[in-house]
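anyone seen this seq b4? input:
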Amino acid sequence: MIINIQAIGIIHTDHTSKEHSPIQGVFHPDATGTVELFPEFAEGLLDIELFSHLYLFYHFDRADPGELIRYPFLDDTPHGIFATRHPCRPNGIGITVVRFLERNGNRFTVKGIDVLDGTPLLDIKPYIPRFDCHPEASEGWFAGKNNRQKPVGRE
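predicted toks r here
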């Protein structure tokens, strides 16, 4: 089955290369960016400033489709692609949680962004702790893993 999805905007950041972009935004909470919605979607931002955090769904437009078993950035043991957040995925859909700062028309500023500059935005959803926070959730193989530099050749 083929599903067509159109971009609703563009994400602007200071992250210009895959090698130097953060592995996860939580490791760089001060990294700022701007989300620009295309004008035809701007009215959908009504009340967005009422939320402190947002989910951004985006397209890994510069990642190649990858193998189903991958060495992730934060571990030296291979895992199934669906047990990782690696960008080289069958459908190249990324997700990140960012802190909302301010809105100006069809643009808004965020912090904690780990996305490459010029990345196509697919969707935005509010982060709602009552729905989205599960303190009892297992971290799987991520448990105890700390931030580190991206290993060379892991794309």
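The helical segments are 129-132. The chain is about 5% helix and 30% strand. kinda curious what u guys think
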